[in-house]
Design a protein that fits this description.
Blueprint lengths: L3 H11 L3 H22 L7 H12 L4 H12 L7 E8 L5 E8 L2 H14 L3 E2 L9 E10 L6 H11 L3 E4 L3 E6 L4 H10 L6 E8 L3 E2 L3 H16 L3 E6 L1 E2 L3
Length: 242
């Protein structure tokens, strides 16, 4: 398993323009609305909301925006977002999973299908590619002189992590989805700074695109899906996408 692609995605998001940052704020706002709906507006009793507040701050969302999103989600006029997952294939059979949060499923389904069709792929039925991925919690910690690898690995495994690896820039800690929050909190309590802690879908195998056209279309598919306000996350098994 490798979180390298995920780490690059995080760095790319932080480098987005102001207009693109607005889209990131919108997506996190929807996640907050769903978390409040499902678990209440008190982050002390809602670990998912607490994690999202930290995620929002890591993406430089102002505190006022966070508080406003929580208040709106708690009110009578809160939007009831529906979480829908779409599956399909990109160019040359790349497996793609798109998670969305929408107040209009017909609009979202039509737009997602359009992107698949336009950029050399096709949207499939539920379950057509999900079996190619494994759900995991992924915690990333940036490498620096203050982090000793063996000590971090020991702390992570003692906290309940199931796997640990490192690349040139980050340490990658993998957990069962249900253990993500507990492992993250244990590492924070031990003094570690978390760069990212999110649920992820890890491909069991990867597809390498050979033609320039396929690479161009796959990049465009991901780009247009990311720009769609209803799309929350995109998972795929394309290798060499960085």
């Amino acid at each position: 398993m490798s979180g390298h692609s995920k780490w690059n995605n995080i760095k790319n998001k932080k480098a987005k323009t102001d207009a693109q940052k607005g889209k990131i704020f919108t997506k996190i706002g929807k996640e907050i609305a769903i978390a409040v709906r499902d678990g209440g507006a008190d982050p002390n009793g809602n670990s998912k909301l607490r994690d999202l507040i930290e995620k929002a701050k890591a993406n430089n969302v102002p505190n006022d925006n966070i508080e406003r999103a929580i208040k709106k989600a708690s009110g009578a006029d809160a939007v009831d977002y529906e979480e829908i997952t779409y599956e399909g294939y990109g160019p040359s059979g790349v497996a793609v999973i798109v998670t969305t949060a929408t107040d209009n499923r017909n609009r979202t389904a039509g737009e997602v299908r359009h992107f698949f069709d336009k950029y050399g792929g096709n949207m499939g039925t539920s379950g057509c590619v999900a079996f190619m991925f494994t759900d995991k919690g992924v915690i990333l910690i940036e490498k620096d002189d203050s982090v000793e690898e063996d000590s971090l690995m020991e702390a992570a495994l003692e906290a309940g992590a199931e796997d640990f690896s490192a690349d040139d820039e980050v340490y990658e800690i993998y957990t069962e989805p249900s253990d993500l929050s507990a492992v993250k909190e244990a590492l924070v309590s031990a003094g570690y700074t978390i760069a990212s802690a999110e649920l992820d879908k890890i491909p069991q195998s990867y597809v390498t695109l050979e033609s320039e056209e396929d690479i161009k279309n796959m990049n465009l598919l991901i780009e247009h899906l990311e720009d769609n306000d209803d799309v929350q996350d995109i998972f795929h098994n394309w290798e060499n996408c960085d």
